[in-house]
Amino acid sequence: IEQGVVDSLVCDCCRTDVASTRAGAAVVYRDRSAQEIRDIAVRVHTPSGWSDPARLGPDHWQIAGCPINGPALDASGNDIVAAWFTAADGRGHVRMARSSDAGVSFAPPVEIDNGGAYGQVSVVLSEDGTAFVSWWRRAQDGAELAVRSVTGDGKLGEPRVIGRTRASRPDTVPQMKRAGRRLVFVWTEDTDTGQAVKVAYSEIGDTA
Predict the structure, then answer these.
(1) Is the pTM for the entire model greater than 0.90?
(2) The three-state (H, E, C) secondary structure of 85-115, written as one string
């Protein structure tokens, strides 16, 4: 097993993600500077080594502690989509950015939710280039798991509610995967008798 260091100063508790591109394996993580700027970076492992970090946004989020709210990544060929949470302006946002050159550069981010999102994102890239982003967002009696589509040319679909939780600020990380023309969502939720695993399905045509 080959091991190595991708970045020696990163956000401690935010999860990472990885996806396979034509250029090599791409990783996404929340980077960290000496000034506590904690923005999202993507690097690709090529035959010549790790690429320079591609900074998503950048958001310039300065926070003296890990938000425990990591990014997500998916890829097909040279196309990569990354989704993440930020609260650089004191309000929760979920954003997505796209790369068409295997992670060398990313287009400006698309706002998925700027109304006080909670994050814990997942992202899936479909065969036609449409991306789907899922995240927790504020609801009247707890929170909602929502999904929203973004076409290859940046057109946003309407958010669709997949599930709900009584938690006022959920910290579970829902997983979203594509199975043919269907999106599958799995997450955990506290109940009166313990913790349950919830599953939901949505046809891709219903969320585009």
Answers:
(1) yes
(2) EECCCCCCEEEEEEECCCCCCCCCCEEEECC
